TrEMBL record:
Signal peptide: none annotated. InterPro entries: CoA-bd, NAD(P)-bd_dom_sf. Residues 89-195 form the CoA-binding domain. Pfam families: CoA_binding_2 (PF13380). It comes from the Eukaryota. This is CoA-binding domain-containing protein. It comes from Epicoccum nigrum (Soil fungus).
């Protein structure tokens, strides 16, 4: 190993322009300049090191790896999915007997994944899904046995309805909501994010239209470690 060593400087100030072999059994192939900080992409990556003229790396300080806005958003959504699917029970606002409506398809999704679910529909005392009748409740405040705090709420209603629905859900103690695409605007999204422990909505998910239970639900179940079986 050759060094460009200036005797006027201390070893901490000399420079090196040749590869440095790590003593930590990690291959290092980049040329480094002595006295500068280098970041390692392995077990050592959370510490900052500088080159020493005798072949060692000297730890300078602990440092953190910057997190991008996209990475933080993904982490936040994963946490929200875990919270949502950790609830003992679920409710679907906008559940419908009409197979052409998303309220029907989302409610059926919960049934098909063997999840305990209650339909919310103020206009009909029952709905028919998967060849069975299901008793509805009119609003989140009617979720009383068990209490609303045991439920996560899927919302498939027009934005004008969703705003009042979320206020009732907050009053009832619902901890987490999933707003299907088309059920909210920016104001409603901000309200949901500010007033619930978890709010799933907006850009993201596997599909191109935002977070959807039908597309992203199984990934959420996996993230939460929720056991389920397809019916």
């Amino acid at each position: 190993m050759s060094w460009n060593y200036d005797s006027k400087h201390t070893p901490s100030e000399c420079t090196c322009a040749v590869p440095l072999l790590l003593r930590a059994r990690e291959a290092w192939t980049d040329d480094v300049t002595h006295g500068t900080s280098v970041h390692l992409p392995t077990k050592l990556q959370h510490r900052t090191y500088r080159a020493h003229p005798f072949g060692d790396l000297i730890p300078l300080r602990h440092t953190s790896i910057p997190t991008t806005r996209g990475q933080q958003h993904d982490a936040d959504m994963e946490a929200a999915l875990k919270t949502f699917f950790s609830s003992p029970r679920f409710a679907v606002a906008g559940a419908s007997s009409d197979p052409s409506k998303f309220g029907h398809r989302v409610f059926a999704w919960y049934l098909q994944h063997s999840l305990p679910v209650t339909p919310l529909n103020p206009r009909s005392p029952t709905i028919s899904v998967l060849s069975r009748d299901h008793t509805t409740v009119p609003s989140p405040t009617a979720l009383s046995d068990p209490p609303a705090s045991d439920y996560s709420l899927s919302v498939i209603t027009p934005p004008a309805v969703t705003k009042q629905l979320l206020k009732e859900a907050k009053e009832a103690g619902v901890p987490a909501v999933w707003l299907q695409p088309g059920s909210f605007n920016d104001e409603i999204l901000q309200y949901a994010q500010a007033n619930f422990k978890a709010a799933i909505a907006g850009d993201g998910g596997v599909g191109g239209e935002g977070w959807c239970v039908l597309v992203d639900g199984e990934a959420g179940l996996k993230a939460a470690g929720r056991e389920w079986s397809r019916l």
